[in-house]
Amino acid sequence: MITTCPCCGSTKFVSNTVLWDGLIKEWGLKKDEATYINRQQGYTCQGCETNLRSMMLAYAITQVYGMTFQDFLKSDIRILEINEAGHLNKYFKTMRNHTLVEYPEIDMMHLPHRANSFDLVVHSDTMEHISEPIKAAWPVAQPVFLSVKQGSMPLPRNILKKRSN
Ligand SMILES: [Zn+2]
Hints:
There is one protein chain. Helices cover 34% and strands 13% of the residues. It has 7 helices and 6 strands; from the N terminus they run E-H-H-E-H-H-E-H-E-E-H-E-H. The longest helix is centred in the middle third of the chain and has 14 residues, at 52-65. The radius of gyration is 16 Å and the shape is flat. 30% of the residues are buried. Bound molecules: zinc ion.
């Protein structure tokens, strides 16, 4: 269990329940699935209200770049955010080289940016809606691609290449 928020440094958390019985029944969730979602979405930093899912994305960024999240925010890293990446948007938008694109104004399958325009692509609730997600963002940002949805762990470049073929 995470004990310090990578975003704000708070050590105070609260476990909120985000699913209710009627919704669990309607979605046909098993008990462990409901527990997982409640934890992922409801375990929240009391300092900055970032939930576990977003804290794990921030943590993954610190591991990829070998710096604190605060130093990452002050860096020149060129970040493309495809649809607001949960609670992290408020942090990302403070970065000098931050670009936010949102559907339907921008279609991820037809990103208008030149090749290698970004060092990092982050997104939230996006990949499951398009047919070839890796191929879509690969041309504009080859190095690192982080997904809030997929548990927020970075995929090595060779895996991305294999998947995009
Ligand atoms: Zn926090």
